[in-house]
Amino acid sequence: MWRRNSLSLSSKLASPNSNPSLLLLLRSSPKSHHHGLLARSNSTSPESTSAADPVSWAQSGTGVPYFGPRPSASDFPSLAAAAAVRAKEVADLAKHYGRCYWELSKARLSMLVVATSGTGYILGSGSSIDYLGLCCTCAGTMMVAASANSLNQVFEVKNDAKMNRTKRRPLPSGRITIPHAVTWASSMGVAGTALLACKANMLAAGLAASNLGLYAFVYTPLKQIHPVNTWVGAVVGAIPPLLGWAAASGQISLNGMILPAALYFWQIPHFMALAYLCRKDYADGGFRMFSLADASGQRTALVALRNCLYLLPLGYLAYDWGITSGWFCAESTLLALAISCTAGSFYHNRTTHNARRMFHASLLYLPIFMGGLLVHRLSDSEQSATVDYRDQVNDLSSSSETIVGLTENAIPRKNRRPALVGTQAQSPVAYASVAPFPFLPAPSYVSS
């Protein structure tokens, strides 16, 4: 009887529908004569087992029952090797997509855009700089720039495949699909604009969104239609510093136009040199650049030289508007003269060597110009003091003219002495207006 009950209990335990709580109860009993529970492996029904091995049993110790084959010590090296291979595959995949995203975003160009936006933010901050706001503005600008550059490559994938300079990019080379790139670009654009709207202001977010649309949907298709695309691209490059200024000050003012103007005029010789150096690539890709309709390169060099000369008065304007000290006026003038000399050399002798010199000079000009703006910028208190000083100069000039006029009228004409040349003291701004920039009108406070 006892034997028959034990067999019945054993059959219930071996049944797949047995109660788990009963199994645990039996295993946890120290007086139990069972040496462990038996676990089935790779089978769901008793009918599927073979006669030789109806149930795969594995002796287990006390605690929670282990269902399945227990790995032996010899299996651990193979498991570790499989885990290492899997980890390497994940790392390679992350590296692959990270590299693709880096190239789609044109990361170095995007970082230059971020530098101009950050400089504009500092210039518009006045005396105190909100560093958290600066970081958020730079991060949002980076995302929007990455989105614009990625969309540019999505639209130009067929053209890039025809050019030696761009055929190894992620899309022409097939390293990433177009839907994947569009998803990446869209997510970056939305995230960057939202970050600027939340952490800066709606004006900065609006400038970022409009610049993204202008670059991706106007400048990019225009490159295959008309050479005016270079000037539209210059407008695109001039907006990021204005974005930074708006993010810091919440408005767009005349003082904030110095750096955008420098970016606009600087991009023309920069792009003209690049278009001259890559004429064959642009022709193969189907892009209508200005240099392709200029076989001799004379008009290309002239446009570059003209825009280099437009950079000359920017240092004077930055000083005259109270943004920087007088030192920046001199430094900016020398810098503009240097890049103008390379443009003049390219105009006089249109060779690849001279075009490359002008291109390298343009690469040096922008960081030095922005660095000078940051080093010599005036705080709010210093700008106010400068404005007060100029108001006093205006008042003094007007009163001096009145006194001189009364004195001259009081002295008989025959007793008047001729004025000595050079005895009248003039401010540095007067010399700057008369000597290097004769095309600029003299300020109202400079006596004639």
TrEMBL record:
Annotated segments matching region Disordered: 34-56
GO biological process entries: heme A biosynthetic process
MF term (GO), any: protoheme IX farnesyltransferase activity
Comp. bias regions, Polar residues: 40-56
Gene: LOC105167176
InterPro entries: Protohaem_IX_farnesylTrfase, UbiA_prenyltransferase, UbiA_sf
GO terms under cellular component: membrane; mitochondrion
Pfam families: UbiA
Keywords from the UniProt entry: Heme biosynthesis, Membrane, Transferase, Transmembrane, Transmembrane helix
Primary localisation category: membrane
Entry's localization field: Membrane
NCBIfam families (UniProt xref): cyoE_ctaB (TIGR01473)
Membrane topology type: Multi-pass membrane protein
Key word Transmembrane helix present: yes
UniProt name for this protein: Heme O synthase
